[in-house]
Amino acid sequence: MTDSAALPVIIDCDPGHDDALALLLAVGDPRLRLLGVTTVAGNQTLDKTTVNALKVLALAGAAEVPVAAGCDKPLVGDLTVADDIHGASGLDGPDLDVPVAEVSGEHAVGLMRRLIVEPAEPVTLIATGPLTNVASLLHIHPEVTSNLERIVFMGGSTDRGNTTPYGEFNIVTDPEAADIVLRCGVPITMIGLNVTHQALATTEIIAEFEGMGTRLGTVCAELMTFFASTYLREFGFQHPPVHDPIAVAAVLEPSLVQTVIAPVAVELTGTHTRGATVVDLHRRTPYRPNADVAVGLNVDGFWRLLMSAVRRLNKSA
């Protein structure tokens, strides 16, 4: 499905309904070469996010992609999962009883290091969960930065949060990890809630998945239907935002996501704001810019990109 000229990427994730769509987009677009998938505790516990990643890859016909489990808790403090949004399994909704491959015997940090240093060309690391694995990689193996093209992460926001008033889930789960990543010196793109909340899985989008008439299309529709029910209950949203695949879309087609370069810091100590991303859009601080921050999205282009990838996987199944 991919060739040697495709862009090499690693996805670090915590599936998660929107992580599942991110994986499908990465596998289903031949312009990306998915070298490996690493999992982290976040939306659910590590054992569950790892199984979920294996299941999504199996459904996508990509069981050969190596999957390694990583950190089971944040660098500081205890883990709080998002079972109110993603359910007890982390992927509640569809029947995902599929045969899966074995998880790698390597730790996620070891697999990421190997997959980054071995290729001749630089590797892009896409993170759609808490940044614990990525921060651990940068701390333990700083040599990887020489062959990292870019780190693209879904997390944070230029305005409000979804877990605390100003904190987005992935960053709030491990603020210290996010702080390490944002100070690492590698080119970074931040895909925050201010943009992901524009990509809504409307009833028309869910119907388009269902109308594909395939198991994978039905799974996507059922994932989004469950996701919609929890977002309605917890936030009062009529349609749920699909955050994580936008990080993959930004790698595939950068023109879909408008960004501005800005200084970004993570609040580590605030009583009410721990885990908030402080994005200095108007340069009111003396800090140097350290991230390309997403500020706009071509919503129609994004959905067409994702639908094309899922249809491509349907045809190859």
UniProtKB/TrEMBL annotation:
Keywords: Glycosidase, Hydrolase. Signal peptide: none annotated. Residues 9-304 form the Inosine/uridine-preferring nucleoside hydrolase domain. Pfam families: IU_nuc_hydro. SUPFAM superfamilies: Nucleoside hydrolase (SSF53590). It comes from the Bacteria. GO terms for molecular function: hydrolase activity. This is Pyrimidine-specific ribonucleoside hydrolase RihA. It comes from Paractinoplanes durhamensis.
